[in-house]
Sequence to fold (277 residues):
Amino acid sequence: MTSEANPGFPSELPMIGEEPPAEGLVLNSTIETQLAHRTFRSFTDEPVAEDVMATLLDVARHTATSGFYQQCTILRIKDPQIRHRIYLSSGQPYVGTPQGELLMFVVDLSRAARVREDAEVDLEPLGRTANYQQGVDDVLLAAQNVVVAAESLGLGTCLLGSIRTDPEDLIDAMKLPKYTFPLLGMLIGHPNQDPQMRPRLPREITTAVDTYPDFESDQYKQAWADYDQVIQEYYDLREGGKRQDTYTSQLIRKPGNPASEKADMLGALRAQGLCTH
Ligand SMILES: Cc1cc2nc3c(=O)[nH]c(=O)nc-3n(C[C@H](O)[C@H](O)[C@H](O)COP(=O)(O)O)c2cc1C
Fold:
């Protein structure tokens, strides 16, 4: 059964090892969309309609923006050669195929730089890490707004942090000026797969009142152990019992190993005039 507000998505939201998230929650079509989130990595050949793309780009434009600086620029990648270079930087096979729209979300302090240069005002503040962070805030919020809007229309999305493996090449490929940085990619398309929802850490671990949750409490330890079990079940079901894996083991094994986590991010940012101090 699919939801009226969300064609293509289940109206009941099963989660492995947990009560359905609908229990005790206030639901409307927006929240149902958000609770049904899944990343899609395979898309059909059907193009995303132009009016849908225009809508998604406008949703991004209307997102809240830190300091009213509006420091997000989105490039819609249509040139296969540029897409190929982004694919090479990301290493993700689904970026290398023509299916799905590819958007690149750029942190953009270059507009401010131009205005300040014309006004013969110091550019020093634009090199501050705090100012870059405001651009990051804008990009991430705009991207998530696009995800929610796309999913509400029955489309699937895949955010792409992996593009940051070779920032210098992306900067060259997309002709990004100084004071900009390619932070995030996103594929959007008509889903060609039906992935399971990935269970999330429970509220006892990811939320607390007033002070940080107590790692040592029995409740915390139990919630952690239960979650590892839930994730093991998720992989059992997804990969027919072939994958022995828990959340804990991923945190031990993964950080630092993906290529995008090995890039000299600070060097690349500083070459763009960002995060110099
Ligand atoms: C900032 C960010 C960057 C991501 N980058 C990638 C990526 O490069 N490639 C990819 O396949 N998925 C990427 N993802 C998707 C995550 O892998 C996915 O959200 C996570 O595994 C949870 O799965 P779900 O979205 O289906 O719930 C990214 C997600 C976020 C939030």
Summary: Strands lie at 72-77, 101-108, 156-160, 180-189. The radius of gyration is 21 Å. Residues 1-19 have pLDDT under 50 and may be disordered.
